[in-house]
Specification:
The structure is a homodimer.
Chain A (H helix, E strand, L loop, with lengths): L5 H8 L3 H14 L3 E7 L3 E8 L5 E8 L22 E2 L1 H19 L6 E8 L4 E4 L20 E2 L7 H14 L16 H11 L1 H6 L2 E4 H10 L6 H7 L11 H7 L6 H5 L10 E4 L2 H7 L6 E3 L2 E2 H8 L6 E7 L3 E7 L10 E4 L7 E7 L3 H10 L3 H10 L3 H10 L9 E3 L16 E6 L5 H25 L4 E7 L1 H5 L1 H11 L2 E4 L5 H14 L9 H8 L11 H22 L5 H13 L2
Parallel strand pairs in A: 1-5, 5-10, 5-11, 12-18, 18-19
Antiparallel strand pairs in A: 1-2, 2-3, 4-7, 6-8, 9-10, 12-13, 13-15, 14-15, 16-17
Helix pairs in contact in A: 4-5, 12-19, 14-15, 15-16, 16-18, 18-21, 19-20
Chain lengths: ~575, ~575
């Protein structure tokens, strides 16, 4: 007979009950403690069960939203949606809970008694109208066929006219918060979406007793308590610590009936990032097979949750989440403004620091565009024959070159410029083309152009007092493309590491869960310690190669010159082309 | 018995000899007269047998040069050539004569007695060193393994250092002829090639009793008489009517041993274009199965020979020969200078007018580059399935768009700029790219960019006093691509016709042969009459569509702005990229 646990020893030796009790407590203390990070993405939700002591990822499970992204017709009623709409069904989020949490517990063989906390990360701004008790308006049969009753997903872009109006008004009024968001707010953000509801379906707006981020709504469902978090409020709803939201007269100027939106439909109590939002209700615990009463952390935006996973909770380390687009996150000691940053928010990434966010509108999207639209059959065939992806083949071919060899230079604005220029009307450019230019040449030039775009962001932040000494990457791309990593290291002249976890956001959420649980329950006192213990980077580090850095310095000088020429009004040809195109298409 | 000729009638009716003689002469007068145009291209030579009365093309035959373009090793000796060399074996030209002329006579069923003249067009500057009797040095066993003894083909580009030196010196000395060649001479031209011989193999230079255009050499072989023609001397050897070649002190400054090059190795007697160079020798007549003594016209550059075929012998009509690159030709009343024209030469295209030549370094080459390097498999497959070329498919797709719809703008400098900027260091550019840009979008933008390049040339000429009212195109491309023709009509806001003949150069050569033969022999008094009678354009005319013209005017304004910005020193990024590339490749 194998002795499997202290319990068995106890049984074997017939220990007395009072001593048994003592042992049992000791045993529970000695057993590992776990938290669960739940990551709500665009198409699915994921749970990650993590060992609190060292961040070991014990089990993970994904559940695809039954309704996915609703962008054509509403479920059941079949009501058609306009272009640029993107909705979700909040019940899908609840289905995630019911599926993925039991799955990871089972898969990890973990006793629910050892799960001490839950953290949640969520796409943002993904927001919905609810009743005062949290019931989504889209649950009510009377409103189920009304598009504005549903959850607006982050990438719902139909609020562009509202965003334009907000920007115009803020500029006219000289709103002080505007420069904290790079001088421009996005159609993806909270008040643009709220104003669109009011403009287009005022009945829904008036019926809505709450307008709330889906992350906060989900935590409300877990804890039974309505809260709001500083990360989403800060980056998506113009909230600043100590200053609050824009003033009622701003909202009144936007729309008379919107003056009291914060007071009537939101909340001015904002939990600092990762703070404990409440404790798990018996009902939510039953959904998931967990113990009621465990800590639930305030939700965090998915990207921002990656920062503690990358051990980048202190100034000087930038986290770069690379996918179809790139999100740059770094914390600083002071609040400064830098052109084109998406936002600076105190307690926005970790408590006690100012969190800076910037981004590039397209990176992986540009490479994917090229691979789909610009590569001749011979490369497709060679990749097929070798059983590798076309990306891999092009990377291999492009990696044979030295910097400067292809003679090309590109501006990475295929999806406009979302960083220091904040201009969606800009477009991509390639120059240096000759009759000898090949597809791998262009592929490499496109990678370089996105690296130059990142360098521009880093230099702008650094010049404005937010230093960046080192970069840690996350997302699918860094893992797959070594050439890309080396180019980024060479172009930025900075070491490039990779977050250890393949689930950086969910792991970060689990850390916030461990902090919410606190030391007494077996968690941590703060996110810095949690990050130290549970986060980490891979061993592989990409270091700048001095001779490449020298060449890229020269190329970057030319990139900058084109950047300024086409981006800052010297030659607005890109805007003229866009407007001519619209004119022609409109007939 | 079928009566086949007047001769049979005569025999049948037993006509008397003196009356027979009379009949025979009458019969000969009544029978059609023919000339033969012989077109020497890069890879092959072609004969075209033409009815003098109406330009009807009776027969044609092509013969590929046995040695083709010699650009790797010399025949027999196997001596290796450096990069950018391109040689030919002049005996290949003689083989052409022996093959294609008998072939067209046989094919056309034409009596050699009815062939009254020969015209020759040739690539230029294609030049060779010979003895005083015309024997090419490459024929001499002692020099057969010496690359510089061979004929240098027009596209021999290894004389670039010599061309640079000529340009630099001419500029320093303020040579008055320089501006007649757009301020820059080419490595393809005569004196760059001659100087390269002197620099690299002085023995060959000194042994050469003649340095001569291959066209003039070929005519020498036909007539037994050494002559030079105004077209090649004017466009390729800096000769100007009444002014002659550059002065000996210029050549002395270039190289002391080159001072007397014109006097010792060339000739200052230059035949006006298409003038009779001599009469066919018995030997040459025997090669070809023709009658000795018939007229042979002075040779003409191939492109320039197309002008009379297109009936563009008077001012205001531009001939545009479209292939891998484009050559623009138009005549004017006065000698003016315009930036970037390749040359202005009196009697250079037709006698009595100043011939203007301009060009674009790549057009068809750009589309071919794109089709080879930038189009994804789905289009290749669709073209295959429909049994059409990829060009056709892309043209079809692109033709569905309206001007301005794709939102793109390109600079057509894939092979540098050979027109108003005369700068080989410039390179191609595309801007306006988005994630929605497709291959047909780019294809259309590339066509448009070459049309903008042509408009720039037309406007520059017009502004400088050489009006262009109408365009006649020649070459393979116009026939194949209707979209291209319409775009050129819309962009230039001018009617676009097409030369009727598919062999515009050879037909023009045949016209010059008819003029050399003269009226008494059944030919013409001048090229204008010959062109009127023998040339012609197709019925199809592409007319500008006003609403397209309006859009292209806007796009052209932006093209011009980029043209000036990148081409005139405001931003030399293209040159920096080229020089960085050279630096990197040199290690």
């Amino acid at each position: 007979m194998r002795i499997r646990s202290i319990r068995q020893i106890r049984v074997l030796f017939g220990l007395r009950l009072n001593r048994y009790q003592f042992w049992k407590e000791q045993e529970a203390d000695m057993r590992s403690k776990y938290t669960i990070g739940i990551d709500f993405g665009t198409e699915s939700g994921r749970a990650l069960l993590v060992d609190v002591s060292d961040g070991r990822e014990v089990a993970t499970s994904v559940f695809t939203y039954p309704h996915g992204v609703i962008d054509r017709t509403l479920p059941e009623s079949g009501v058609s949606l306009e272009p640029d709409w993107a909705l979700q069904d909040p019940d899908d989020y609840i289905q995630v809970l019911k599926n993925v949490v039991p799955a990871v517990l089972a898969q990890g063989g973990v006793d629910s008694a050892d799960v001490i906390g839950i953290g949640v990360d969520f796409t943002a701004c993904t927001m919905l109208p609810t009743l005062a008790d949290g019931t989504p308006l889209s649950y009510l049969p009377a409103y189920r066929d009304r598009p504005h009753a549903w959850t607006k997903l982050w990438k719902h872009h139909a609020s562009q006219p509202e965003a334009d109006r907000i920007n115009q008004l803020a500029e006219e009024r000289g709103e002080p918060w505007l420069e904290l968001y790079g001088g421009k707010t996005s159609s993806e953000w909270f008040f643009a979406k709220a104003l669109q509801i009011l403009n287009e379906d005022p009945e829904i707006y008036h019926k809505a007793e709450r307008l709330i981020e889906a992350g906060d709504w989900l935590v409300w469902q877990l804890t039974g308590r309505e809260t709001r978090n500083s990360c989403m409020a800060g980056y998506k709803a113009l909230w600043q610590k100590g200053e609050g939201f824009p003033a009622p007269d701003f909202f009144a100027a936007l729309h008379p009936e919107m003056a009291d939106i914060v007071q009537t439909r939101m909340s001015e109590e904002i939990l600092p990032i990762g703070h404990k939002a409440g404790e798990l209700t018996p009902q939510a615990a039953a959904w998931m097979g967990l113990k009621p009463g465990i800590a639930v952390a305030a939700p965090v935006i998915d990207a921002h949750c990656t920062v503690p996973s990358a051990q980048a909770t202190r100034p000087g380390i930038m986290v770069m989440i690379m996918g179809t687009s790139v999100c740059h996150l770094v914390v600083g000691e002071e609040r400064v403004t830098a052109p084109g940053m998406s936002g600076v928010v105190e307690d926005g990434i970790v408590p006690g620091y100012f969190g800076y966010e910037a981004g590039q509108g397209a990176t992986g999207d540009i490479f994917a565009w090229f691979v789909k639209n610009g590569v001749p059959p011979e490369y497709h065939q060679a990749a097929r024959e070798r059983g590798i992806s076309l990306h891999q083949l092009l990377e291999e071919e492009a990696a044979k070159q030295r910097p400067g060899e292809h003679g090309l230079l590109a501006l990475d604005w295929w999806n406009g410029n979302r960083s220091t220029l904040v201009d969606a009307e800009l477009s991509g450019l390639i120059l240096g083309l000759t009759l000898a230019t090949t597809a791998p040449d262009i592929y490499r030039a496109l990678i370089e152009s996105t690296a130059f775009g990142t360098r521009e962001i880093i230099e702008t932040l650094t010049e404005n007092g937010v230093p960046v000494h080192r970069i840690v990457t996350a997302g699918g791309m860094p893992e797959k493309n070594r050439l890309l990593m080396q180019i980024y290291a060479d172009v930025t002249n900075r070491e490039l590491g990779m977050v250890r976890s393949g689930q950086g956001a969910a792991l970060g959420a689990a850390m916030h869960g461990a902090v919410a649980a606190g030391v007494d329950a077996g968690g941590y006192a703060d996110i810095f310690t949690a990050s130290e213990r549970m986060g980490g980077v891979k061993e592989t580090v990409y270091r700048p190669i001095p001779e490449n850095v020298a060449v890229y310095d020269r190329l970057y000088a030319d990139y900058k010159r084109l950047y300024d020429y086409f981006g800052r009004g010297e030659n607005d040809v890109m805007k003229r082309l866009r407007s001519l195109r619209r004119e022609v298409l409109a007939g």
